[in-house]
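Much of what follows relies on a compact textual record of a protein's fold. Each token is a code from a learned vocabulary of local backbone shapes. The record below shows the convention in full.
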Amino acid sequence: MDPILSKSAAADLVVAARLRRGLSWSDLAGEIGAPVVWTTAALLGQHPMTAEQAERVCRMLGLDETVAESLRRQPTRGTDPALLSDPTIYRFAEALAVYGPALKELIHEEFGDGIMSAINFRVGFARRPDPDGDRVVVTFDGKFLDYRW
């Protein structure tokens, strides 16, 4: 019996097929009716897909059942520490390092003692034209979870 394809190997195949077929992440998200950020994260190995989602994406990409099987698996979430050196990813870490303490204070002031969920969570992504150069707009939308004693 062959082992199940790893999430990272499946992600490599998805990326290659997407590029070779000239498809966008938005095209794939539209195919399964899911948000583009969630879909992209799922196809890169951070979320499990339903059987139907995995089948539809694999059909669109011309990938076989071994990839669909991997896409359905529960992931081990997180990032390879080497990815933190990527300039785009590093800037997110830098932004949280600079603004994280202020956001924590503001959450506590506005909501009380608790945290923002990263499980009951949505991420928005948009491009906003600006005369000084287009802006990247990323919105974190997490449920507030109060500490209960």
Remarks:
- The chain has two domains: 7-72, 82-146.
